[in-house]
Amino acid sequence: MSGEKLGELFHHDSTIFDPYSLFSLRSGGPQGLDQSGLPQFSGFLDYLQSSTDFGFTSSLSQEPFGLIGDRHKVCKAEPRATENVISSVFAGGGTRTMTANSSVSSSSTEAAGEEESDKNEKNEEKEQEDEDENKDVKGADDGADEDEKAKTVSANLMVQFCLINFLCVWRNCFALILLKNLLFATRSKSRKKGEKRQRQPRFAFMTKSEVDHLEDGYRWRKYGQKAVKNSPYPRSYYRCTTQKCLVKKRVERSYEDPSIVITTYEGQHTHHYPSNVRGSSHMLANQQSSMPPSFHHELFLQTLTPPLQQLNLPANYHDLLLLQNSIHPSFINSNQP
DNA sequence: CGGGTTTGACCGGCGC
DNA sequence: GCGCCGGTCAAACCCG
């Protein structure tokens, strides 16, 4: 994966989100502090919960993203996007077993609070407007802190898409997800006074796949396609087909590594269950609606355990399963085989 | 016929 | 102000 091209797609700051500390892919696993003095987390959820500042600020950057492989580069900044990027790269296809150095990913995100200081100053007023707009849009909100809400929404989105990719891995017999550079910024910086459209939180995935449009359980309608500058591969625009659901997603292929698909989600689904899901998920959805939360966990275990074990994932990947309480129920159902 | 895709046109933001 | 570019629209088309 080349950083230069992706740098045009994703914003970079010095923040590095180390996936190995999440998944304990490094030998020795998470214990105390790592070499950079960073706290280690027993799992993804711990990481989220222990980080009240989802910006993963500069201390994390002391240790470069620990991917093995010379193709890894850190992306440059994209000045405009307001995206939370999770990069997930599946090593190889078929029944290939994942190894750490067979997966390469590169992505980054931006966070409003982590822009360069001068830009922050410039955008301070604008961001204040954004906050005001957010309040207007949310309307009936009870006045809770907007940033906290945004972080919560972003965290939920991130978790959803993380697991979406996990299930995609399983479904497609791919390998591993690597996460890094998880940042939270939900406010648009490009909004004109009065009537700029509001940007939803965005997450971008990089997925090694031969299929452009990965099944994620939701139904999407393609509403546009654009040629991407400096890339032979077009970018496709999709909208969730469910009425009143404003979630969009962009799908494009990295031109320097055509095997990698970059999927960017924007917004959050407003419906509990994917409408008209292809396949046989309706029954599961109905079942789920009357099931206690504990069942969801078991469902996940049943779903994920065999393939993930086959993929030699770290033992504490079960931590991810604990995230199911934060996952949209439809996601669970929609990814049943 | 309904729903999804394609594709050229259009619009708005942004940098110069 | 102008041009570039990303994002969206909508008519035409396709398909089951």
Layout of helices and strands:
Elements: H1 3-9, H2 19-23, H3 44-50, E1 84-85, H4 117-138, H5 146-171, E2 202-208, E3 220-227, E4 234-240, E5 248-253, E6 260-266, H6 281-289, H7 293-310, H8 318-321, H9 329-334
The chain binds a DNA duplex (16 and 16 nucleotides) through strand 3.
Subcellular location: Nucleus
Pfam family, one: WRKY
Protein name: WRKY domain-containing protein
Any overview of this molecule?
By secondary structure, the chain is α+β, with helices and mostly antiparallel strands. It is 31% helix and 11% strand. A six-stranded mixed beta sheet has the order 1-2-6-5-4-3, with helices on one face. A hairpin with a 6-residue loop joins β5 (248-253) and β6 (260-266). It is globular, with a radius of gyration of 19 Å. The two termini are 31 Å apart. The model is unreliable at 1-145, 169-195 and 275-337 (pLDDT under 50). The protein binds a DNA duplex (16 and 16 nucleotides) through residues 79-80, 190-192, 196-197, 221-226, 228-229, 235, 237, 241, 248, 250. It is found in: Nucleus. Its main location: nucleus. Keywords: DNA-binding, Nucleus, Transcription, Transcription regulation.
Largest beta-sheet details: 6 strands, mixed
Q: Tally the helices: what do you get?
A: 9
* Strand percentage: 5-15%
How would you spell out the order of helices and strands?
HHHEHHEEEEEHHHH
> How much helical structure, as a percent, in the residues?
25-40%
Low-pLDDT stretches:
1-145, 169-195, 275-337
Radius of gyration: 19 Å
In which order are the strands of the major sheet placed? Answer: 1-2-6-5-4-3
Shape: globular
How many strands in all? 6
* Arithmetic mean of pLDDT: 47
What is the SS-derived class?
alpha+beta
Q: Span between N and C termini? A: 31 Å
